[in-house]
Structure to design on (322 residues):
């Protein structure tokens, strides 16, 4: 492995360790607050960061979407995905939640067929089916009691896949400000309205937890950006699966969770399928493959997605160079 790729892989591993710590904070806060309240405060603390980013964006334009329908679809998908993912983290063991959410790149591959008209060959199609079979191994329908958290994780994965595939369809022409702000504002308004029914008093340590979530997300974005600057996407993307290690460690040390055999086997199948697809697409298509374009993190509407962050950074750099 070239030195730059090794350095990029290390940055990516660090990024997903920080993302996992973010998800740990979500789970800890979930013991006291409903996911609506966690999302609300996460967005609230994220607005200053996004405002600074948009102030540095040299792209001309306004906040009127060029593709209103697709913007509405993506915004709705992210609102649903965010609250479902946050609920899943609070309701399920961390490792089990990740095992289900890791199906998102597989779902993106499936959604690319009708939405992007992308062909899916035999090898990739079989890998997707095997990966989704791994999710069934984790869930074991019929032999284990399925909870609302399992449904939330599945809906969250599907919503995140929908949001990502919409970005692939319109992201080249839609402004970063639209891609970033619409899901955040929608989350803020929807979750704020829900607070009237589920609000729990917030103490100083809780405020620190909400602020820590935004801080960790920004740190992870910076590390992920450094990873993609130093290494090929095919090296960086599979590092997302290292989150299962942190999930198992955090779950055992903090919550006394012990992943069952079905979770371990199912997660292995899902991870193996995802890695196979990434590696095969890297060899065949380079960095334009659908799975690689997701930047390997399930979509949320609380802070900017990695793609928007990277585009603003590059645009700002190109303006300085010129």
């Amino acid at each position: 492995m070239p030195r730059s790729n090794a350095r990029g892989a290390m940055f990516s591993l660090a990024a997903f360790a920080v993302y996992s710590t973010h998800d740990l904070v979500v789970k800890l806060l979930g013991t006291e607050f409903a996911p609506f309240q966690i999302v609300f405060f996460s967005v609230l603390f994220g607005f200053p960061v996004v405002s600074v980013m948009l102030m540095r964006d040299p792209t001309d334009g306004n906040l009127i979407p060029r593709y209103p329908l697709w913007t509405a679809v993506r915004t709705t998908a992210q609102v649903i995905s965010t609250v479902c993912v946050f609920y899943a983290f609070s309701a399920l063991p961390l490792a089990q939640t990740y095992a289900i959410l890791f199906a998102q790149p597989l779902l993106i591959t499936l959604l690319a067929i009708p939405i992007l008209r992308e062909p899916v060959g035999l090898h990739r199609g079989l890998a997707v089916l095997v990966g989704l079979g791994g999710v069934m191994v984790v869930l074991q329908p019929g032999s284990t009691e399925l909870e609302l958290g399992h449904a939330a994780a599945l809906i969250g994965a599907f919503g995140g896949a929908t949001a990502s595939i919409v970005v692939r369809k319109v992201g080249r022409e839609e402004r970063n400000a639209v891609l970033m702000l619409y899901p955040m504002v929608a989350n803020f308004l929807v979750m704020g309205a829900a607070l009237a029914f589920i609000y729990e008093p917030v103490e100083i340590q809780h405020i620190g937890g909400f602020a820590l979530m935004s801080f960790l997300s920004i740190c992870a974005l910076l590390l992920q950006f450094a990873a993609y600057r130093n290494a090929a996407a095919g090296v960086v993307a599979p590092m997302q699966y290292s989150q299962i290690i942190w999930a198992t460690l955090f779950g055992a040390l903090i919550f006394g969770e012990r992943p069952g055999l079905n979770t371990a086997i199912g997660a292995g199948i899902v991870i193996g399928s995802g890695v196979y697809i990434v590696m095969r697409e890297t060899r065949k298509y380079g960095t334009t493959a659908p799975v690689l374009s997701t930047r390997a993190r399930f979509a949320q509407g609380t802070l900017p997605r990695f793609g928007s962050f990277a585009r603003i950074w590059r645009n700002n750099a190109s303006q300085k160079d010129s």
Notes: The two ends are 34 Å apart (CA to CA). The mean pLDDT is 84. The chain is about 75% helix and 0% strand. Residues 3-30 form the longest helix (28 residues).
